[in-house]
Amino acid sequence: MNILLPVRDALDVINGKWKLQIIIAINNGNKRFKDIERQIPGITARMLSKELKDLESHQLIKRTVYDTLPVSVEYTPTPHAATLMPLIEALKEWGTLHRKKILKDKA
């Protein structure tokens, strides 16, 4: 089986600086736009909005609009997003090891 095609498909969905951070923020209970924005240093409201739409189109998050005054919107992870959690955990573990190695080699 060609390994490049499925890896490329996965990277197309989670590519960029923000998508995994947004998924992690939402999985950690940040459901409203401003909460997500505050959780991720450096992201702009415009970029967050774009990335949320993209994640919704890939069925990784669900956007729910509540008929309140003012209108409130919440974002929640879908069951499909849960399938990313082992990958996120593996990236966290690798990133921790990599940081230790780099800092050790610099010392």
From TrEMBL:
Keywords: DNA-binding, Transcription, Transcription regulation
Keyword Magnesium recorded: no
Signal sequence, renumbered to the chain: none
UniProt xrefs under SUPFAM superfamilies: Winged helix' DNA-binding domain (SSF46785)
InterPro entries: HTH_HxlR, WH-like_DNA-bd_sf, WH_DNA-bd_sf
GO MF terms held by the record: DNA binding
Annotated HTH hxlR-type domain residues: 5-103
Keyword presence, Ion transport: no
Entry-linked Gene3D superfamilies: Winged helix-like DNA-binding domain superfamily/Winged helix DNA-binding domain
The protein, known as: Transcriptional regulator
Species: Filimonas effusa
